[in-house]
Amino acid sequence: MGIKDTVRHLPKLLQQAAEQLPKAATNPGNRFQNLINGRRDQGQQQPTEVQSPLPETQPTNGNRLTTIAAYVRSRLQAETATPEMPEVAAHITTGNRERILALLRRFQQEAKPEDIAKIDNNIERMRQGAIEQIWPKIQALVKMIRDPKAAWASKTLAIGALIYLISPLDAVPDIIPGLGLADDAAVIIAVFTTLAYQLDKYLGNYAQTAVTTAEDLADIQIKKYNQIIKISLIGSIGAAILAIIFKLIYNQI
Amino acid sequence: MINIYRIFRLILLAFTLYNAIQLAINLIRYKPYYDQIPPTLKKYLLNQGGKLLGTKFKEHQQDFAINGILLAVLLCLNCLEFLI
């Protein structure tokens, strides 16, 4: 129906609405049911139930606002989640490529801020095998998703990759020795390469942290070996003094 | 006469020699990798390493001094033991 038709039929529609209003006012609870029954009578298909993103129970104003905000945020995430996927796809060259990309895309679209805590809790247990070698990259991704100033679109990609990493059942299940973590590593490297520009500063931080940690470890080692040498020298001095005393006594005898 | 102190010193000498050999083995093992580093980077790494060692030496100077004094005392005692 075009705009012109709508304008032409507007008076008629208004009249129908005016006739329906008193009925609805007398029995508002049955209005929706009557409308459905009316459609059934006219032979129309019963409308399928549309799942509302909002809860069925009527929340208080504060909860409702929070729910609406969460819904809007999730829609925004879904809308902004995919711009970098082609670049990621170009970097993934392993087998099961399509399945890996499909899973990554799904994880990315479903990414939400609550996933950050989930990643924090599970990321350490993944530090093994192939993942151990790319751990600095993973650390940089984790730092980026924790940073409130980082762009959400980039964060979703990083969250998607990290969720892929901690998920035991992905394109190649993680329980398969040797191969299980190879696809995870491929995804991490692809996403890291895609977000390299944004991750630069987090890597810089990581490098600085690594230098500080290495210096601390060096301090611990220096202290430890100084102590060992000191104890050995004191022991040797004691032994030397004893040897001199025994030698003197032996010479006297 | 079985000199127990001499045996103790021989054990310490063996321990020192073992560690020196391990150090030499490690140097030989990693030398090819070190040779592959570009000269500019090598120079930078040497400078940084030197600075780091200098800093660490200053930080732990007191410990090194104590150990040095103890070593000097031990040498003197050994000389004394040899002369007696």
Overview of the molecule:
The complex is a heterodimer of chains A (253) and B (84). In chain A, 73% of the residues lie in helices and 0% in strands. Chain A has 253 residues and is mostly helical. Chain A has a domain at 79-200. Mean pLDDT of chain A is 71; it is low at 24-29 and 31-57. By secondary structure, chain B is an all-alpha fold. Chain B folds into 2 domains: 1-36; 39-84. Helix content of chain B is 92%, strand content 0%. The two termini of chain B are 15 Å apart. The model of chain B has no long low-confidence stretch (mean pLDDT 88). Chain A binds chain B through residues 215, 218-219, 222-223, 226, 229-230, 232-234, 236-237, 239-244, 247-248, 250-251, and chain B through 1, 3-5, 8-9, 12, 52, 56, 59-60, 63-64, 66-67, 70-71, 73-74, 77-78, 80-81, 84.
